[in-house]
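Reviewer has doubts. Consider these tokens.
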Amino acid sequence: MNYAPSRTPKSDKSDRNNYTLNFKPVLNSNGSVEFIDHCENKILTVSFGVDDQDFQYRVRAEFPSIIADIVDLAVAIHVSDRLAFHDLNKKLRHLNIVLPVRHPELLSTEPFYTKLQDLLRWATGSKWVFDFQKRTVSELSVEQQSILLPTVPEGCEVALWSGGLDALAGLYTRLQTSHTVPFMLFGTGSSKSVYARQEKVFQAIIKSFPTHLYLCRVPINFLNSKLLRKNKITRARGVVFTLLGAACAYLMGQRTLSVYENGIGAINLPYRASAVGLDHSRSVHPLTLLMVSDVVSELLGENFRVYNPFLFLTKAQICRALAENQENDLVAITQSCDSRHRKSQQPTQCGYCSSCILRKQALAASKIEDKTRYLVPHGDPPASDPSKHLLNMLAQVETFRALLTSSNKIDLQWEALTREFPILDDIVDRSAGVENLSPAEMRSRLIDLYQRYITEWDIAESQITTGILNKSSNQQTLDRCLTEATHA
């Protein structure tokens, strides 16, 4: 990483989130990007690489150059999103990306380019502008390697693999219902701890299904990353994950990529208007998956689908197969936490972020013994109040309850629900056909989803609040939140 400016950028105080990233060709190692922060008047060169060797485990003999361009695009989006600081309280972030690719004439066409910009604007809240230029250097190493015979079985279901509870529970459920289908699990990222977790959970479950599971991972690595300030708000991670997963699926001869995520977490409705600064990521939102499908299909020139088979199930429902087989120890090694803690001798999962709370709720509602160790209640208590996420989640549950008990007629329930959460109408309008449902059927299934979620909270709430809501002030705040939700 070279911090010496190669030229002096013009400072831009009028747009305080304006960045330019000039990429050299994406390589397995020693790739680089010139990162220009127009606000801070800084230029630095950042080195990175993508380890694509696991793409040798595939069905297709050749590695299509258009798939290599999808990989390069995903890597560039990941690197850009990590480097370009994103302050949600300031102006729109503008990212200007210069990227060498093999087929600039395809990536620059109006249908693809517009769909790509719309996807990234939706997923990240930022404006992305691309200048695709002709790549002139040699290919990635995996492009140069043809395979004579498939190195994995044909007919694999290809699914994203994070090492989290939803990924495990979804896979376990699919294994129980699809006894003859092999599975290719795809993982990526730039975190060594996440990478290790993916491997650990995979090795644990493969003991029970030794002939059904395969793992492909393509990490993206920053060189000298400890010296580099990286953006913590990485809203593009879902796009990057699904683009790389789509490349893996195509190489496996498939035109579908599965994403195992519960419907509550996937749709990820906001808690309440006053819940400022909480994470409402769209990583695996139904519209995100639909838009990624459109982007990949446009580039390939054929239909490709990113599909969540568990959109209409709660997290507790997905965990049912694990509960029936008493896989408590397997559950305990998965990772859910949004804000991992790295202090020695302390649990790594906090126990009070929204992801940890939903994990606890699902395990309690599905009657799985939770052997996970959390900072709350098993470690040293945090300096800040840990109740914020729980209070907002409980308020949201009461909002759902008030909206769905306002009438016993589905059309009136839906009207009340979408008055508060209009995005649900967009999901139905754009996704019902893809889900092979009529709009009325999809509305009914989404209402059922949120009604089940309310019921599960009634079962699990008392088990979750202990250790988080243990002060009278917390109880007073909770009472106020519930009152606001009921009268919203």
